[in-house]
Amino acid sequence: MAITGEDVSLDKVVPITRNFTVEEVSPDCDLHFLGSDVTVWIESEEISLTVRLPFGSHTRMFLQEVIRCYPGSGVPDPQFRWLNRYRSASLEEQQSQQPQQSQQPQQPQQPVLADAGIPEADELKPNGKGVLGEQSSWSFEKPETTSTRLNKSKPEITSHMVRSSTVTVSDKAHILSMQKFGLRDTIVKSQLVQKEETYTYIQNFRFFVGTYNVNGQSPKECLRPWLSQDIQPPDVYCIGFQELDLSKEAFFFNDTPKEDEWFKAVTEGLHPDAKYAKIKLVRLVGIMLLLYVKQEHAMHISEVEAETVGTGIMGRMGNKGGVAIRFRFHNTSICIVNSHLAAHTEEYERRNQDYKDICSRMQFCQVDPNLPPLTISKHDVILWLGDLNYRIEELDVERVKKLIEEKAFQTLFTYDQLNIQVAAKAVFQGFTEGELSFQPTYKYDTGSDDWDTSEKCRAPAWCDRILWKGKNITQLSYQNHMALKTSDHKPVSAVFDIGVRVVNEELYRKTLEEIVRSLDKMENANIPSVTLSKREFCFQNVKYMQLQVESFMIYNGQVPCQFEFINKPDENSYCKQWLNANPSKGFLLPDSAIEIELELFVNKTTATKLNSGEDQIEDILVLHLDRGKDYFLSVSGNYLPSCFGSPLHTLCYMREPIQDLTPETIQELTLMPLQTEDDGTREEKPLKIPKELWMMVDHLYRNASQQEDLFQQPGLRSEFEQIRDCLDTGMLDTLSGSNHSVAEALLLFLESLPEPVICYNFYDTCLECSSNYPLSKQIISTLPTCHKNVFNYLMAFLRELLNNSGKNHLDEKILASTFGSLLLRSPAGHQKPDVAEKKKAQDFIQQFLV
């Protein structure tokens, strides 16, 4: 399980003084895994620690800050008086006794292993070297303190275990990723990228790509028939799993013992004729991706980053979605994506939407924090694998089985949904898939090669697929592996020869020298100047959670320039929260151009003030050129008010649809203070609950009480937009769209409330009495009337759903976990809820469902 910052607490504070040292080490047990975690040995006057950290932008930034804080020569050590409150009495007593003990021999202090909350051995340092490429060593000691330090106890570290972090000039992948030190360095980097072909050559490396939906099972058989079938061992393994764990614990808390089980099974199943280093493991609930390379290639791997995107209900739950690992191999950037898309034959549009969500939301941090994140498409090679869940349509089960018996795979392929959607350019544009010359991989009776004989009798389908995008890629094989019978899916593999750009050191030096000489001639010759294709942007009829995009071009003149949108005076950001420029900064070579997209998106954070008129769709952007002038862009538009983002008590006073009311009325009602009881000052009595909430719940009560996977499977975005428009305009008496879309709209409505159903000021009290039902009922009875009514109405509806649990497969835990985080939310300024708090919120709601 990937543990986050919310799961750890402050344990020790180590002051950084001249006697402080930190050194990267490789314990004996980690030597086989060259791509293991970053392990650092930390020593100060008070403590000796061995700490495990993951490679990535956060670790790199932390270690750079440590170096920056180290006291320089001639600077007195800080006193750190503020630390006194954190020091234990025993430690202070021990320090006070040190003079008396100075005559006695010093007892070695045994180092302790400090778990930084990261899974073991799941990262690789850039190029297999130190994270901080600018340093030749991570030791901060001064020469005069060396002898003192050597007398202190430390873990046994031999010279071959300490990894150098020196950067050679030929390591262009690392040089291009180092932080910018001004415009000159940026120009050099950009021109090196442009002239890459002059100092690199193509070398083929063999990649094994595999995908396996294991249906929640533990490994029961050796994986070598899948992973090691070829005589030649691959250089790189990319192995993806789906449905690693189907338990509720894995779904809600992203924790599963099966990660270790399958990791061990894969490691044991790798080709026996080579030694491999694990570079990275990333998992989201049941979707896991593993990356291994031959040990001799590990030093040429750099810039390893991993990300996850959940596309389940509300776009967050990780039962469906994707995980990805990106890295640079020699001089070629590679991105591996493992995805599990929406199920069921009729849900191909949902699968298309999942694919697009993964593409748009999967973003990787760059080594240089000043550079914008990388998306999947910004890589030389993309390998996409997984249970894509596209089915065979328009044919009945028996006809599909008949064509499989006849091995008429090409005929069957014409009915394949993925084939149809790719041809329609709905998904995977620019990707290639090898010929499907093997029988479908789903669905089998577990433990056999027999097609599904269950009551549902699923039609066979090629759910499990591997596609690729990029140059110099040759697919050598694409097959299923019928020998493995653990799951109701069969694993799939593809083997590729991929041409990777490798640097020729001598040619690289010559190219670099030419660039520097050319730059010397043109430097400071002129002031940069650009032309903008457009400076005024108007966004018409902006709606809640509906993206609008306007674009313009920046055309550069004869001088290289660096541009960036900058903050206006006394403002914290270059634009308002609902606006974003993509990219917001960049570099232009002479006579080049770039397209900038202005993205406007109103969400729960910004909707309330736009509804009330406190904010408007108006902004001024300042585009700044380094060593040049500023350009001003104006943004304007109008926002259509929505029930999403409106307070509950406001909606109770709106008997008409919100868009039928005047802006003045909406503003008055939105800014109206929340009161425990109606004070009678308004002529019109409020509704007991908002009509919009009633419409959604009533629709689900009448149509979805027995709906399987309700509140677990997401709806379609297009249907959500129709539901939102219906609620905001009142044009239709009934809601359109699937039950799943209405259910998701209900959850999004509750999430968008500026004051949750259980008001913020009751949050701590609710957690305290999460196991005391009488006290919990008493708290609910003291809520403002509209909030109390909504809570009781929702609980009655959820209990009705549980009465139909035999058909909808819902239980108290699922509903309490889903609604707990929406009805009972931590107030602003409160630290992010940890697992224990989330569990208490779930328990509080669950009391009302039993």
Automatic annotation (TrEMBL):
It is found in: Cytoplasmic vesicle, Phagosome membrane; Early endosome membrane. This is phosphoinositide 5-phosphatase. It comes from Sarcophilus harrisii. One of its GO terms (biological process) is regulation of protein processing. The lineage of its organism: Eukaryota, Metazoa, Chordata, Craniata, Vertebrata. InterPro entries: Endo/exonu/phosph_ase_sf, Ig-like_fold, INPP5B_PH_dom, IP5, IPPc, OCRL-1_2_ASH, OCRL1/INPP5B_INPP5c, Rho_GTPase_activation_prot. SMART domains: IPPc, RhoGAP. The keyword Phosphoprotein does not apply. CDD domains: INPP5c_INPP5B, RhoGAP_OCRL1. Residues 672-850 form the Rho-GAP domain. The gene is INPP5B. Residues 134-150 have a biased composition (Polar residues). Residues 94-111 have a biased composition (Low complexity). It comes from the Eukaryota. Residues 91-151 are annotated as: Disordered. Keywords: Cytoplasmic vesicle, Endosome, Hydrolase, Lipid metabolism, Membrane. GO terms for molecular function: inositol-1,4,5-trisphosphate 5-phosphatase activity; phosphatidylinositol-4,5-bisphosphate 5-phosphatase activity.
